[in-house]
Fold this protein.
Amino acid sequence: MTTAWTMAVTWPLYLISIGLAPLLLSIFGGTYATGDLVVVLLAVSTVVSAVCGPVDTVLLMAGGSGRSLINNALALLVDLALDILLIPSMGMLGAAIGWAAAIVVRNVLPLLQVRGQLQMTPFTNAVWWVAGLTVVCFGLPPLALRFFFGLHWWSAALVVGVSCVVYAVALLSRPDLLALDSFASMVPRRLRPLITHRPASLKENYS
């Protein structure tokens, strides 16, 4: 569930960065456009990191501090090796490749170890639902805008705004799947019915 919540908050930002990278980089000046691929690469790696969930924390709590240390050391070695090999010829992009590879290694290794040792996985129905919803709302529209209609601030703002509304409505339509009623005490009383509705069968399961 923590993984699904993390994805619900972070994936929209990462996917928007992938689709609108040139436009976002233009804030800093025209010369930053060369960093387009770097932004996309690092955003993809952080998408992978988010979907793996807090696996390193779970590994540590299960007594795997030694394996966690090895995983992080291997990620560092991968980063350094790729930097040495790629930066001289590819520059900034080579550094991004090394960093992205290190992020993936640091998350995939503990994911496999937690799965093997504890038979635990973050890939629940809630995670798949959030993944599909965020891709539909924040992945596809910016990419369509970028490759078929061109990137402009007004059109990007319109697309992102509509996507946010659709996304919020869709999230609130499945409070049972994301256990959103856990946050009921944090919202005004008049809004609590929006996030506390659950089918009877699910209420029984949670009780």
In short: The CA atoms of residues 41 and 97 lie 7 Å apart.
